[in-house]
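lol so apparently i was supposed to do this last week
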Amino acid sequence: MLLYDTVIFDLDGTLTDSCPGIIACSKYALEKMGRPIPSDETLQRFLGPPLADSFMRYCGMNEEEAAYATDLYRERYNPIGWKENNVFPRIRALLAELKKRGAYLAVATGKPQEASERILSYFGLLPYLDAVAGPKLTDLHADKADLIRRVLPESRMKHAVMVGDTPGDIKGGQDCGIDTVGVLYGYGKNDEILAAKPTHVTETTDDLCHLLCPDMPAPKGYFITLEGVDGCGKSTQANAMEARLRQFGYSVHRTREPGGCPLAEEIRKLLLAKEDGGMCPETEALLFAAARAQHIHQVILPKVAEGKIVLCDRFVDSSIAYQGDARGLSREWIKEINQAALSKGMPNATLYLRMSVEDAFSRRLAESEPDRIEQMGLSFQQRIAEGYEKLMQENPDRYVPVQAAKPAEEVTEEAFQKLFERLVREGVL
Ligand code: TYD
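anyway here it is w/ thymidine-5'-diphosphate bound
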């Protein structure tokens, strides 16, 4: 049973943390005007009140300067800044679970309607909401209680609650005659929230889940690997995927192979050293497999069990493509020595960055000195690429191929969209 079947949420500071974008855009405007930059703590106060007021109050500007600063702020906010926002952990899962249990969910925010919908849509939260109310351009100073009334049907007043991080949210709910939850993880000062006397107070998003949705299932873990030939831009995309997943509210453990735990990192040094002591292909394959077994038991399985998204740069497919197809060892033997992976540690999804070997090879050589494996040359890389193509054919459900020979941002966009759709589809929220 839900304590409330109707939940109205504030947006900034309650569902998402929009501070990074607001701080970066304020700094951009101040730098362009050659003004001193206040501390991040001061810039955080820009959140909520009209921007021009904040530029006047905290940066000593007159009206004309503040209007100009606001234009500069928008110059960065409109293309980039609005996306520099983080969904608080567990919020997506909370909305999904409340919805599943039949609750009516809405957002009432002081952020303009259009901007709010754009953010909720981009971060994949809009599908869980029945209504969104923010000030329209004609009534930018709308009262919180009015905004709540816009999304709160009369028939649902009895079991409704307003959730927010500022005294204004609490007062808005009280003015509408409904219960309120003050959350302490947002931007509001704790003593001011408590002084507003909300019906409930929660310190973390976990507490909020507990209150609004008892017995919520624990977060589901998920294992994602990244694969591709040397020079396909994998490190850049691994960084970008990690950042995106975190922004979308996921708890991520980033790792790599060979390596990822102390023993495996020691093995990595042996494997990638230029002086290899005449290492034969079998030894190489066994060392990769040994490092992997340790990594699976010590890191990957425990982190997935904790409900984290494990994001791993290379995994067993690298051994199949490099030691198997490229070095010419039998695929079957590679699979045999990698039983730790194949029997209990296979990825849920593998992001495969497809790129022609020629493109990847020239990109890589331009970037840094090749390691022992990269020194093997173009035909070796060609065999790796063929190995990956075969793996993709054999594992259509696990493989998420992305064409990687295009600007890095476009690759990120496509890769993340595909991964995120998959996570939502599989209930990893
Ligand atoms: P690394 O510097 O991590 O390269 P990259 O950024 O391309 O992943 O070095 C890893 C090298 O080891 C890379 O050339 C691929 C190779 N490798 C194998 O040959 N077999 C394996 O099982 C793994 C995990 C990596």
